[in-house]
Write a structure and sequence with these properties.
By secondary structure, the protein is of the alpha/beta class. It contains 23 helices and 23 strands. A hairpin with a 4-residue loop joins β6 and β7. α9 packs antiparallel against α21 and α17 crosses α19.
């Protein structure tokens, strides 16, 4: 894989003389107290400012501060005018705009397009502190405030909308977010490397309009433009064999917005160019201009990731929030991220599109230092670390056994349809980390709250024993998502037998440890490829296994996810897409989505009328009755005072009511 310049190798900017800020300033008085007359960079974010590495504005802000730059924060500004965007004055280098830790539309709306009643990233959970499509709105206000200041957008909302994409909330294909924001550059993925280089280059007087060589960046250029050096379009007669100097032309926005076949083909091509070891640049025409996306960013080394997490965070919300509770902070304040990225490739998940498939792990020493910081500096600590994890709980230090194979690989998942023979699945470093973490003075218990990849865990019975004996607080989250092969294939998830094997090992380990512990499985309704018949089988599996789910999830099509491409096009981009290739069953109507969700809560009387109607339609009236073998009863609360009496017969003992 191409080498990258280390984050710590740059000569610090002259403003380092001002030292480290207790908190990055959010007001003029705070700037004056630090001795600043201006900010070099101003970050505008849709989240409340919490100075902790789990929050993007703090991580990026502290990283740039460590490079010597003065960084200010405008958190959750009033977007109804440009006035609030001038509160810190004009930045010397650029505005950096992000919607926050979540896509603003996912943050504000449910899977049924209903507005949410709270926002976990806002003081008091208030739901009205950010606009829809926050990146675009904030960018426009920055332009109004200071028209000539360079504008850079990033974060997960920008990452997931970096090419033409299907937007569930408007039910149409939208352009890349970059031209809609009128920004100079979009940085996608975990953008530390690109952002540090960009900031230093701008500080030396380079024009942002001329910076075209940053990995992980996107920009708009005149149609037909290409870099000055020898870049060639892949497939052309003069195409270079050097993939780092070739590009793929995706179907244009005007094609994909109206043609689902072309959209599915673009989605497949996009995902096949996601490995930073071999990805080519992507070009997509938008009107009379081209959107140019350079190859993805190179992952950080362990030493670089340690540097990012070891920065002098205050590890608290900004003092201006007073005693107001911020739900997202309450949830993670006693947890520690140990890695980033995920090679699972689940088609409904946005982690791959943003963080990439290469797992980047911190050193054990860095993680233990952060646990000690939680113990010593975080209010409310009671001796319990609530999580050691990341996108998954148990991919720590897992990677391809051969760097050359990893750099050449174009698989969409390292674990589907089977775990790759070249993948190192050794859990020993994670087991050692757990043991050392719980031995730290002042640490009573270390829990695992991140979702567990059970198909990896079953390869290490020792890990499961360690987990069950020491790191489960009665319940463990796990996500089989479904039981049937049809939807599981479209999710790129392992079969339910893998879950059941894990459950057996987990139950045995729990008993051996003298503990009563349970798995809490998560399932998705209405995922592409899921039929009503599949949901019947899932409901029967839930009943057989004694699960009565309280919270259930309906598939939410998020931008750029492969499952979203299936949902929009009814085609399968996991395989080559042609006019005659496989079609995918899709649940669109609200009533059918409610039905599939109702099967997950088969035990709820409110769902019984809908389920009875569906079971009759599906030819499964045999599942309606008052015995153990039935899914829903024939009686309905409120219709009769009590269920009909059961009459025993020689053939049945009259099972109890479902």
């Amino acid at each position: 894989m191409t080498s990258a310049r280390l984050l710590t190798s740059y000569r610090k900017f002259w403003a380092q003389r001002f030292g480290i800020a207790p908190f990055l300033p959010m007001s003029r008085p705070e700037m004056e107290a630090l001795g600043w007359d201006s900010c070099d960079v101003i970050i505008v974010t849709g989240d409340a400012y919490i100075d902790h590495p789990s929050f993007g504005m703090a991580l990026i802000g502290r990283l740039l501060e460590a490079q010597g730059f003065r960084v200010g924060i405008i958190a959750q500004p009033d977007w109804r005018s440009a006035a609030d965007f001038t509160r810190l004055g004009k930045p010397n280098l650029y505005f950096g705009v992000t919607a926050g830790n979540m896509d603003s539309m996912v943050n504000r709306y449910t899977a049924e397009r209903r507005i949410r009643s709270n926002d976990a990233y806002t003081p008091g959970g208030s739901p009205d502190k950010r606009p829809d499509r926050a990146t675009m709105v904030y960018a426009q206000r920055c332009r109004e405030a200071y028209a000539q200041v360079p504008l850079v957008i990033g974060g997960i909302e920008a990452s997931l909308r970096r090419i033409a994409h299907y937007d569930y909330w408007s039910d149409k294909v939208r352009r890349s977010i970059l031209p809609d924001c009128k920004a100079d550059m979009l940085l996608f993925g975990n953008a530390e490397r690109a952002l540090v280089e960009l900031t230093h280059r701008l500080s030396k007087g380079e024009d942002i309009a001329a910076i075209h060589d940053l990995r992980g960046s996107a920009y708009m250029v005149p149609q037909g433009w290409r870099p000055a050096d020898d870049w060639q379009e892949a497939g052309s007669r003069t195409s270079t064999t050097d993939r780092s100097h070739s590009f793929i032309r995706l179907p244009a926005y005007d094609e994909v917005k109206d043609d689902t076949l072309r959209y599915a083909q673009a989605a497949r091509a996009f995902h096949l160019e996601s490995n930073p070891g071999n990805a080519r640049a992507l070009v997509q025409t938008h009107g009379d201009r081209d959107l140019w996306l350079n190859p993805p960013p190179l992952p950080l080394s362990t030493a670089e990731l340690d540097h990012v997490y070891d920065l002098p965070y205050a590890r608290a919300p900004h003092p201006s929030y007073g005693a107001e509770r911020i739900p997202a902070w309450e949830m993670i304040r006693h947890s520690v991220a140990i890695m980033r990225g995920c090679f699972g490739g689940c088609t409904f998940c946005s982690i791959t599109e943003h963080e990439g498939r290469i797992v980047q792990s911190r050193s054990e020493a860095s993680i233990l230092r952060e646990i000690e910081a939680v113990r010593d500096r975080t209010d409310g600590y009671t001796g319990i670390i609530s999580d050691l994890g990341g996108p998954t709980a148990n991919m720590y230090r897992m990677a391809c056994k051969d760097a050359a194979i990893e750099a050449a690989c174009r698989r969409l998942s390292c674990v589907y349809p089977d775990i790759c023979d070249n993948l190192n699945t050794d859990h020993a470093p994670l087991i050692q980390l757990y043991r050392h973490a719980r031995q730290l003075p002042g640490v009573k218990k270390v829990l695992i709250g991140s979702g567990l990849r059970y198909d990896l865990a079953v390869r290490s019975p020792e890990y499961i024993k360690e987990l069950a004996a020491h790191h489960v607080g009665g319940y463990l989250k796990i996500a089989p998502e479904h039981t049937e092969s049809g939807p599981l294939a479209k999710m790129m998830k392992p079969g339910i037998d893998s879950y059941e094997k894990f459950k057996r090992l987990f139950d045995q380990a729990s008993v051996a440890a003298g503990k009563e512990q349970y798995l809490i499985p998560y399932f998705i309704a209405a995922h592409p490829g899921t039929t009503d018949g599949d949901m019947v089988e899932l409901a029967l599996w839930l009943k057989r296994n004694g699960f009565r789910l309280d919270q259930v999830q309906t598939f939410l099509p998020t931008p750029l996810a492969l499952a979203t491409a299936m949902w929009h096009t009814e085609r399968n981009p996991l395989k080559q897409v042609t006019s005659s290739s496989e079609t995918v069953a899709v649940v669109r109507g609200g009533r059918q989505r409610r039905l599939q969700k109702a099967f997950l809560r088969y035990h709820d009387p409110e769902n019984w009328p809908l389920l009875r109607e569906a079971l009759k339609r599906l030819g499964r009236s045999d599942l309606i009755g008052n015995g153990k073998k039935h899914l829903v009863p024939t009686w309905q609360p409120g219709v009769a005072d009590k269920p009909p009496a059961r009459v025993k017969s020689p053939r049945t003992s009259g099972g109890r009511r479902s």
